[in-house]
């Protein structure tokens, strides 16, 4: 192996190198398909709700919408999850919830994504219905049954408990741990 090259001021090169070698080992083509993404995270055989959620995450990571996550998209996603500022993460969550892409989240969208997340992360002490009602009660300022990006970000940033709940529920670091540690083996 040759010396590792790093450009001055290029951030944590060893960490990126680690992710790159892990990515290339798991995905020699350099293009991660949805099927490979699920396999990498040990998330095959989920119920339809869980599958829907993983597909949404995959689609959001697939920045150029070509049906694959390449290494640059992968690193962008990791950077967001690990180092992203809170408003960047909230924008990402908003995009995740806004299933039809119309720029608003309605109760049905929030309910379905939270149900899917519970299927993957295990259940929280709130049901999906309670969570959805609470979010809308707290941050749907104009009571129109829809949340705009602005309502969502302002509402969540103002409410520490809600912020904590959303951050914990949608924490993707367990996804990253699975990637870092290589493929999870079912026991």
Automatic annotation (TrEMBL):
InterPro entries: EF-hand-dom_pair, EF_Hand_1_Ca_BS, EF_hand_dom, Recoverin
Species annotation: Eudromia elegans (Elegant crested-tinamou)
Lineage: Eukaryota, Metazoa, Chordata, Craniata, Vertebrata
GO molecular function: calcium ion binding; calcium sensitive guanylate cyclase activator activity
Coiled-coil blocks: none
Protein name: GUC1C protein
Keywords in alphabetical order: Calcium, Lipoprotein, Metal-binding, Myristate, Repeat
PROSITE patterns: EF_HAND_1, EF_HAND_2
Pfam family, one: EF-hand_1
GO annotation, cellular component aspect: photoreceptor outer segment
SMART domains recorded: EFh (SM00054)
Domain EF-hand: 49-84, 85-120, 127-162
Xref: SUPFAM superfamilies: EF-hand (SSF47473)
